[in-house]
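Memo subject: From amino acid sequence to discrete backbone structure tokens
Action wanted: Derive the backbone structure tokens from the amino acid sequence.
How to read it: Take the token row as a discrete description of the fold.
Attached in line: The record itself begins immediately under this heading.
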Amino acid sequence: MKRSGASLLERLLEAGAVVDEATRRPLHFGDAGRELEAALAGSVLADRSSLGRARATGKDALDLLHRLTTADLRSLSPGDGVPAVITTPKGRIVDRVFVHNLGEDGILLVAGEGMAPKLVSHFRRFMFREEMAMEDTTGSLGQLGLLGPRARDTAAAAGVPVPVLLGSTPWDVSGVRMHVLGEDGSSGEGLSLVFPAERGADVWTALAPDLIRAGFVSCGDLALEARRVLRGLPATGHEMTEGHNPLEAGLWDAVSFTKGCYVGQEVVARLRTYDKLSRSLVGLVATEGAPVPERGATLFREGRAVGEITSALVPPGRNAGVALAYVKRGDAEEGTWLSVGASESCPRVRVVGLPFPTS
């Protein structure tokens, strides 16, 4: 395919995207409520280029990543992938990443928004005699997400090669070489397409029509963020910070308890062995029409501070606000009412399990 000279953003605008003027990110494609329902029950196509991406190369790359993350990477063969958490010496979250062995293209890490420079700096501090290099590839690689519970089936119907869960497979589309990843940037439910950023417009032109005909709905950030909260998926800077550990964030699938030593391993292991988790990540539902709780607001029960809100919004097309919060385990039972403030007159929210109920 001859390069079009256009950008991916131009293609998104042609497809009807309404863009945030400050970030130049697509907010929606005309109906954020419809996009959200498709993301929750069907399949959506979204620009995920804002996620962080870093690449490690060299014969010692896997060994160093193994020693600095919670996942067992020793047997990560080309085409394999796993979720992992980079932790501090105190066992707190630096970030969660999806680690993909792309063979001759190196080890790709898909991270949270804006996190690639921090991760590259973090890993470089531990490089001494290792034969490896690490670079921030966020700007040089683009990423489209195929998200939703039907994303894999719908992608296959559109002719996209579907790798195993968390795996990867190379794919050439009209002269553009890319990798299809078996995760959607937030979970293993969907897929990601990673390609040279300068070919983003060409990739969209080549694939979007077939994907949309197969059943995908173009989706913007408003619906994606609401879907994340309703699914109970932790996000960088919200639920995943150095104030929290991987287990209370629900990242059990990203932690190996048999691999041995890594930075922060003893702390994380003790939390599990002695059942020392003091907080749980829960969902909260506000009364319909009530003000949306603010991120960072303290939650109270009978005058006691019991938690803190980490994400909050009103999902597009709905009336009641929802939130994610860390709450003390003794106060996190489903159905418990908490107040957003110490006063009896403060708005109240009800604890629900994650993911949020569909009805």
Q: What stands out?
A: The first helix runs from residue 8 to 14.
